[in-house]
Amino acid sequence: MILSFNYTAAKQDDSLEHFCLGFVIVIVVNIISILYYILNVWIDIRIGKFDTNVLKIHQFIYITCPIGSVVLIAQKLMILFEMPGGYAYENQNFQFLHHLRTSTVFPGLICLTAFVIERFCATYLAKDYEQKNRWWIGILIGIGLYTVGGLLAYSLALFATSLYHTIFLLVLSLTSCMGNVLNYKINSKYLNSCQRNASGKYSLTERYQISDNIHFAFFFTRFASSIFFFTILCPLLMLAASLDIPWFYRNLCITLFELSYSVYTIFTPYIIYKFNIRWQQEFRRLVSRFTSRFRSKRIDVTTEPCADGSNVNLRNTFGIEMNIDIKRQSDTYFEQLKMSWNVPPI
């Protein structure tokens, strides 16, 4: 199956002009996607946030977005200017761009699986996962993503239908969600064992890793539910485009698939960076620095009531909010410390 717009059929049924308007929208969305990628990576470089395997995998996936966007923009411009490289199946430029484009699509559609595999590694090696800096895990998972994506793109051209690819993608997404639930239950069991065991069986490093795994499980649930629409819609549109239906509807499904995936390349990073505290802090700092140039310099004489500094709202490992009285907590802490170090005088 060739997942590409049929220029000849669109010209024969006089629908090419309407699709050209859709191509302009696709081009604009992909330009925004490229600019958004540059902004995100620039802030990532500023904060130096590439130290964990989760972030390495994220960058492995994310780099495919601007590459795919550049290829898609080139294809659509070639169609708009009636250049054979954008639509002629026998053209070598078309074949190269098409296979490169499909190879960049699949890693984004199987990203959930990559994150779940990494978290299972973190659970299995909880004793010293981050301490030993196992960077090779993130690299291997990234290479695996590219390998699977390339094989899916290659096999897509061999079959007349994308039914098998659609089933594979949907089952993989469902399995990833089930794997996240299993990983959460395993780490919750470990955490309960930590809290009941006071003999020092679990080190501080291991306790931190277990807590981090639980936090990521909550993030994964929010992340997967946020992109659920796209991970279902894109494979179904790909399947519809391979059915034996009139070419107008096949072209429509292909165009909607390209537009949906283009929006997906913007929406998914937005969700990931939304929960990245350091990234958000740096982004707000840059925005504040930029907008301060346009603010009028004036003295604000209004007074606002000061917040009560005696109470702090924190969340425990499971995300439940805890209201802590600082003074009371400090007194309790020092009382416990005094009891622990209560050495009788000589």
TrEMBL record:
InterPro entries from the UniProt entry: 7TM_GPCR_serpentine_rcpt_Sre (IPR004151), Serpentine_rcpt_epsilon (IPR052854)
Membrane spanning residue stretches: 16-39, 60-81, 105-126, 135-157, 163-182, 216-241, 247-273
Keyword entries, A-Z: Membrane, Transmembrane, Transmembrane helix
GO cellular component terms attached to this protein's record: membrane
Chief location: membrane
Coiled-coil blocks: none
Subcellular location field: Membrane
Topology in membrane: Multi-pass membrane protein
One BP annotation, GO: sensory perception of chemical stimulus
Keyword presence, ATP-binding: no
Keyword ATP-binding annotated: no
PANTHER family linked to this entry: SERPENTINE RECEPTOR CLASS EPSILON-13-RELATED (PTHR47518), SERPENTINE RECEPTOR, CLASS E (EPSILON) (PTHR47518:SF6)
UniProt family annotation: Belongs to the nematode receptor-like protein sre family.
Protein name per its UniProtKB record: Uncharacterized protein
Organism whose genome encodes this protein: Caenorhabditis nigoni
